[in-house]
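Deliverable D4.2, example record:
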Amino acid sequence: MKWRRGMKVPFSTNFSRKIKAYIGLVVLLFSIFLLPVQSYAALEEIKNGTDISTLDIRKFNLNINNASVLSKSQSVDQFHLSNPHYEYLSGGAYPGEMENFTLKVDKSKKQDQVFENPLSLKFTNIGNVHGKQVDAYLKFNKVTLHYLNTAQAESEMNSAQKSTVEFFSISELWESNAFEIGNVPYVDANHDYIMNKAFWIDADVTAEIRYADGTETDLKLVMKPTDIDAIDANNLKETFYVKNYKNDVNLRLMNNANVLQQEETSDRTSWIATQITGGSYYENNVSGLALRSNSNSMNFGYSSTETCSAVFGLYVEKLDPSPVLEVEPTEIPAKEGQDVTYKATFKVPVPGKDLLAAPSSIEMVQNFDDRLDYKELKVESGGVTLQEGRDYTIEKSGQTVTVKMTPEYIKSNSAAEIIITYKTATNKKVEEKGPEKINNTVTLHVDNLSAPSNQVSTALLYEKHHEFVSGTPGKELPQEVKDLLPATEKNLPNGSQVTPTQPSQTEVKTTEGTWIFKSYDKASETINGADAHFVGTWEFTPAPTYKATHEFVSGTPGKELPKEVKDLLPADQTDLKDGSQATPTQPSQTEVKTSEGTWSFKSYDKSSETINGADAHFVGTWEFTPAPTYKATHEFVSGTPGKDLPQEVKALLPADQTDLKDGSQATPTQPSKTEVKTAEGTWSFKSYDKTSETINGADAHFIGTWEFTPAPTVTHKATHEFVSGTPGKELPQEVKTLLPADQTDLKDGNQVTPTQPSKTEVKTAEGTWSFKSYDKTSETVNGSDVKFVGTWEFTASPASTVTHKAVHEFVSGTPGKELPQEVKTLLPADQTDLKDGSQVTPTQPSQTEVKTAEGTWSFKSYDKTSETINGSDVKFVGTWEFTASPVPTVTHKAVHEFISGTPGKELPQEVKTLLPSDQTNLKDGSQATPTQPSQTEVKTTEGTWSFKSYDKTSEIINGADAHFVGTWEFTPAPIKDSGNNSQPEEGSSQNQNLLPNTGSAVSGLLSIIGLAFASLAAFILRKKD
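Output generated by the structure prediction step:
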């Protein structure tokens, strides 16, 4: 008790001692009947010299910061106080913070008042045990305010200011990490309405601790009620009690000096104050005790005097430190027979310090993974190997191995450190079960306390295997290929992706032919609880035979071989083997005459060639010698005596005809015109001396005759014309006025020269016109007028000349497709030196269609057909569109195969009929998973076939069908004994009928008996009232 005011008054009761004795007998008999069906460990009550004040058990952290209200009734008034006073404002004050809870009293009733479920709280993260967060829950099941019926109580009830009664608070005023139950009023100026000494309280409370993660809580709650010592003037005695004490409490510890009065009633066991105590030792050992629950909760209660309170904490005993587990090795091949060693280290807890009392049992429980077989263990302490039987015992049940320390060892070895070394080895399941790590923990059990160790893991390692197979039916792989099989790669972690090791060479030549490595059955595999296996296929190509081919070429530039030569090409030489020497076949004749000349065979490009994995090829060269040629010449003569041919006629003499062959017929070339006018008259062509001539080893010669006719006397004139020699520029009037006058009275045969302009340079506003020349310097009059054409050229006045350019750009018109380099290289060059006002059209690409491996790019058009230069460069954007080449769709399938996993046993037809059908239409890159059989167990007359698994859980389609192999294992049917000596099986119904019935029927009967006794007791009590 932390605050009390009382006087000693005899404790009153409403029942006689006789009735009490009778009820006690009923309860005793009821307890005796129920004792066999209790599920908890038997209650142990210890009273010895243990100093409870020095216990070093774990105390949980309870404070106003981690407390939260889960529910409260309307009768509860909650408020926060800083440096509160107790009883009244003039009373003493405690420095610190407090969360206070009071109950609102019905002041019209000066009698006991009951509050059902008034308050429920949660303390979050009160500590960490076994690596888990622990939360606490505190529920007030019922609070009863017992009216004192005194003058003080009357005054408090009549006071308009007073309205509530204190029952609960959280602070560190008396003790850290604790809560306070009692009726001491804590007040300040704003909360001075709490009654004092009007009611004493009885609080029925359930405290519970839980793991925050929701897992089952294996902690045993401990409480240490202390300083239960208040006795007031009304003879009210401070009391702590526990409900269902004998079932819910596992251990009660008291010091020999304890003076609390322990009383049993129908629903509770109480410890009642008998004397005032002070100081930690006395408050713990004289007026205090320690209780360990059978579970993680305790239903306790507290009864105050007219003014007192008690402070409570929540505890658990310590198994500290927790066991430490080590494993060696941390990685092993996933093979049977691998050794795995575990070493567990733990300390024997110290009674009266770590525990309330000396433990009766200490066990280390090791549950091994079913992929391990337990072999042996060794127990050591202080460097000494302990002896089985004397110091410990071993129990093995399935995969669980329990080491139990003997009571004799426990008694004499407190605080000893014990090391257990377990030897195990992997079994066949490690190759079958899957890739999960082999995890392990060991758990220390001390009486009803437990502490798991850290978890250790051993990862499984796998291998990468290769296999070579022949992809050519009927051909076995030669040893030369088998020798190239890559080595097995070991110690690969699960989940790693592996690729097959390529053979050191992919082509092997033998005397029969060549073996070529094609590929592995898959490009990669992810290790998933099994070794990776890659199957590489080699295909055989028989050794080839070869041929020697011939080719004729012309050795004379510009001359093609005639058909007569090509027809002499020798046939191919066939069936030539590698390493043999081939020589070219000579043509059947080495000289061929044609009308044009003679072809002569010179030689082949090589005299021989050794066959080396390819055909031989010989190139023969022919050279041409042309046959001799002749020409036809012409000659002009005058047919008019006394008149020589003028030059104008001689100039019309045709050129010689050349390359005329012997025997060919030549005809003379006619002159380009047959009449020529001169100043004197006209010359007319009559004919050649012959119409044709046959070449006969000499040139042909043709003589053509011209005759002269004199002309009458006529005069002519010479005229002039000016023209512009600058494109786009017309002659100005200033130039035209300079045109010379005609020259007249000119006779045939006169030679005339043109009249020069009076000036040869004319300047205008735009520039300068300069006279260049006439089209000819002179002309002879010949029957008609002559004309001279003079040319003027324009030079513009110099001005600032600005030019521009036209640029081109290509873009893709197909979303998501970039132009390939083949298209980009077709971009036209810029057009330069473009002047303002000029109109530009884009340069078309040199080709409008480009084929690539993926498809075809087609040029569509530029964004505009033309543009006029207007002070800046222009740009033409050309669009190309892509058409993808059609891709053929190849699909594959997934096939299934069943095999027997039991040596010597063939699969029955009943199993074979369960083989799933193929999965079809599977595309490259898709993932195939095997179809499970419609049933996984088949019973036959011989026994049972059980489906185990497929060789792999899935496979990526990669250019070939997937193949899944499922394994069935056989279990023979048990052989029945036909004799008469069979004994009933252990646990059979026959044996069970021989045992006493301690099951649900007895429990039900005992429950009925208990209810009958309880009803009888209630009836007697009502009668007594």
